[in-house]
Backbone:
């Protein structure tokens, strides 16, 4: 069987490796546009931050290993451009020379991922404007910092990549400016919690310009000029981190169904609307476990898991993926910021009757020195008493705590059920009543 | 209504406070033997460790506050000695003078807790032998360390209190000896994981004598002599930390049913076999959620929760407690050690068909410096595919991670369901595949 994969990142290489593990007779070919496969993309900000770290440390497995050990026909520098579902064939060009190629398949996996979405601002396509999605782009930023005296960096966007990169710049002693048109910092987050993050960011000297639309980007001799309505922001380096879009054009051109945000529609086995084509990773959608509806939340665990599930299905050992809760965590400076499930607004949109509570508790038991505040926002449905979502912010004890709530969401627990779960306690790690239980208890009073 | 409570610790004071909150008209009397109520008993080792910390910092709420603000008739120095369920009356004596008292009740809560269990070794009752259960005993140890040049401390026992106290002694520069008759260090723990803890303990210079029965304790001028078969261990201070027994004698003398380990039998509302008497906290048993059977695992969260549930039931707002998973965590030196649910042997005893897997993963994503190993042992039932228990050891990322597994146990998830949960990922906090998911994936292969 010819199993062809477009894209050699998390989903693509997970599917390729697992298919070969399950059935060594399958002929697996991967078309990867760049020269890099299997690296920790999410780790790039931390390596960019530290001149002592080699960006190549992020490579989990080298291309040669996939080729020699895993017997995968891994073709880097191969850019697919067209899928012909009728002929079961993928066309493309070899880079940099653009020699055309064509591959037939029995089964195809589209794992093209996502691409940075750039707002339509004049000047944004200037070749010196940086983005951060793949390793090449990460290396470019790092090289630039290593070889240029960057005093000020501007970042368009305030999502988690923008915040992680602002930390990286601060660590390198670079004055950092965050700018975006929307006037709410972390709009998806409960304001009380978002304010804690904002305070952390500004207290480290980062300039936050929310509600500031960049009308034009000019690259002058002295650097970038970001022309806004009331002011012009200047920086030696400009990073655009205004989110990503799914790379699904090739799929929709081939007639495959797409869903939320234009991501490729897949079922619980990652099958698209064409029975010979799978899609997985950041280019594909997923069932949101809480709403039961399709959603597009591109994250690394889902990509890896979806890649495996494609191989499982392909090899006759299907595993249905129940979907995602949208669990995520990021670090910004000394804070851990995490969420799972829906916020109030998302719950409303999904036709729940949301009730929310915000509590401030502590990272350690009473009397333990070094305890720091933990903020929890918890949302439930007044009609069903179901837990719908949790957000947390704190200096310690947030990143892994969120997983207890994520499991509760997967199990579709009510708040009362979650409140009765038997969580761990020891003074150095938290209060007797875990912050999640304290929040659940307060929320119960509103249900 | 006259609500009488024997014991002013976690369960007793939780019940007292919540009953007053729910119904200020209830007449609440608490009989507490010692002078201390509402303190963080679990925090004592950390305060004993640090000469700069005041032990009274551990007091969460002072007796006067309960009396004046909460309007609880809190009687310290009152030792109950007899329950008369027929007359609905409790007798006892005031300390230190031993004047007799007698209180009638409409509803009684027995929250007498547990007491250190001492092995029958000649000399163990010497007044200089220390135990650590209540604040008075904690203060005594601390005062001794502050006022005596203790060079060597011996601890009989190797449970979590023994280990937490060995850390406290090491932090004070005291050479520490752990001794117990059983030859397995942490016998409830998978050997691979127990070995990691043992290595941590011995690498800090702590002497571990497992399989060493103390036949006699002699207090000489130069300190304690612990006479064993093959050797005599000498120490300036001796702490006995060989576990606890439920303080249920008064209850069984009154004809109340008792269950595992002699703990007072209660239903999901904490009702004993007498309809006017509740029991809660370390003196009472609980349903084990995994086995569905009664078990006795005295821990702080359950005590607090059970106290609240007594008040809820008493005030006509009953909340049934589903039970416990036996989730616990402790810190020893630089390690976090956690468990939830059953180990292989317990699973066998409960008539499951246990399958176990042990994995070694990492606390951070690939390429992140400072990552440390995390060891996970996971047990499932081969017949039902149900997750039965998890143990974890690591320098970081263990204490809160265990809660995800605890919630999965509460939800009675299969390993396959747990493996599909959407857990958080960011490079500073873990690998893409959380250690728990990696263990679940390996375990799935054995099911």
Residues:
């Amino acid at each position: 069987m010819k199993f062809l994969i477009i894209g050699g990142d998390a989903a693509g290489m997970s599917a390729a490796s697992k298919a070969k593990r399950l059935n060594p007779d399958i002929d697996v070919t991967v078309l990867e546009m760049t020269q890099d496969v299997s690296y920790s993309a999410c780790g790039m900000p931390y390596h960019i931050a530290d001149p002592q770290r080699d960006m190549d440390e992020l490579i989990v497995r080298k291309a040669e290993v996939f080729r020699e050990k895993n017997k995968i026909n891994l073709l880097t520098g191969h850019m697919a451009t067209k899928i012909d579902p009728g002929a079961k064939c993928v066309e493309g060009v070899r880079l940099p020379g653009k020699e055309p190629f064509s591959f037939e398949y029995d089964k195809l996996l589209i794992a093209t991922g996502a691409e940075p979405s750039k707002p339509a601002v004049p000047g944004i396509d200037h070749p010196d404007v940086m983005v951060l999605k793949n390793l090449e782009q990460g290396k470019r930023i790092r090289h630039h910092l290593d070889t240029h005296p960057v005093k000020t960096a501007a970042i368009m966007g305030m999502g988690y990549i923008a915040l992680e990169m602002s930390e990286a710049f601060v660590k390198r002693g670079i004055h950092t400016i965050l700018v975006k048109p929307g006037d709410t910092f972390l709009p998806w987050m409960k304001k009380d919690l978002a304010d804690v993050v904002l305070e952390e960011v500004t207290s480290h000297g980062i300039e936050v310009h929310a509600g500031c639309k960049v009308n034009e980007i000019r690259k002058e001799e002295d650097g970038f000029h970001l022309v806004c309505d009331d002011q012009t922001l200047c920086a030696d380096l400009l990073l655009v981190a205004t989110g990503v879009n799914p790379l699904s054009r090739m799929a929709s051109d081939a007639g495959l169904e797409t869903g939320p945000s234009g991501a490729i529609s897949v079922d619980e086995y990652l099958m698209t609307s064409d029975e010979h084509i799978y899609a997985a990773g950041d280019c594909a959608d997923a069932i949101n476990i809480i709403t039961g509806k399709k959603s597009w939340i591109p994250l690394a665990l889902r990509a890896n898991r979806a890649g495996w599930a494609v191989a499982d299905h392909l090899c006759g050992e299907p595993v249905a993926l129940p979907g995602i809760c949208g669990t995520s965590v990021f670090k910004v400076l000394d804070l851990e910021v995490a969420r799972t499930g829906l916020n109030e607004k998302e719950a409303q949109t999904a036709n729940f009757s949301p009730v929310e509570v915000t509590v401030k508790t502590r990272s350690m038991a009473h009397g333990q020195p070094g305890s720091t505040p933990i903020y929890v926002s918890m949302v439930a449905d007044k009609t069903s008493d179901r837990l719908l979502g949790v957000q947390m912010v704190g200096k310690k004890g947030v990143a892994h705590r969120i997983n207890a709530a994520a499991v509760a969401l997967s199990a579709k627990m009510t708040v009362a059920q979650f409140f009765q779960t038997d969580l761990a306690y020891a003074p150095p790690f938290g209060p007797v009543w875990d912050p999640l239980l304290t929040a659940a208890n307060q929320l119960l009073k509103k249900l």
Remarks:
- The two ends of chain B are 55 Å apart (CA to CA).
- Residues 83 and 254 of chain B are 6 Å apart (CA to CA).
- The first strand of chain B starts at residue 2 and ends at 6.
